[in-house]
Amino acid sequence: MWIFGNMEFLPLSLMLPNYLKISKMTISDKASEAILNNMVLMGRLMGMFDRSQQTVENWIDSKDMRLTTADCVKTIAEVSGLSEAEILEEEKVSETN
Questions:
Q1: Cα of 34 vs its chain's centroid, Å
Q2: Where are the domains of the chain?
Q3: Which of 14, 17, 42, 49 has a 20 to 30 Å separation from 7 between CA atoms?
Q4: Is 69 helix (H, G, I), strand (E, B) or coil?
């Protein structure tokens, strides 16, 4: 608990409802295939991150969060023609009771 002047504040984690579901966005299998099968797209991502093809492929295999950044999603959409909804999928991380 934090005290500021005469006011006390609870940490945000204690104020959240107990039914809150925590999730994160990951790259979809469809987007992963688009990157692996399109060398123009692969090259754009390699240049964007200044990393090798092997590194980007490793990120795809591990569903690395760097592939879900706004710039990356925009590039995937522009080159592949996929929509943001087709590129990203929600991965459920945990659920509190």
A1: 17
A2: 17-95
A3: 17
A4: coil
Give the Cα separation of 62 and 44 in Å (integer): 19
Residue 6 is classified by DSSP as T
Cβ neighbour number for residue 43 with a 10 Å cutoff:
13
Helix ranges (DSSP H) in the chain = 12-15, 29-37, 39-49, 53-62, 70-80, 84-87
pTM: 0.71
The pLDDT of residue 91 is 77
Q: Which residue has the tokens 């999928």?
A: 89
Contact 71, 47 (CB under 8 A): no
Q: What is the pLDDT of residues 23-66, one digit of tens each?
A: 688 999 999 999 999 999 999 999 999 999 999 999 999 999 99
Q: Which residues, in sequence order, are bridge partners of residue 10?
A: none
Cα separation, 58 vs 83, in Å, equals 23
User: At residue 22, does pLDDT exceed 60?
Assistant: no
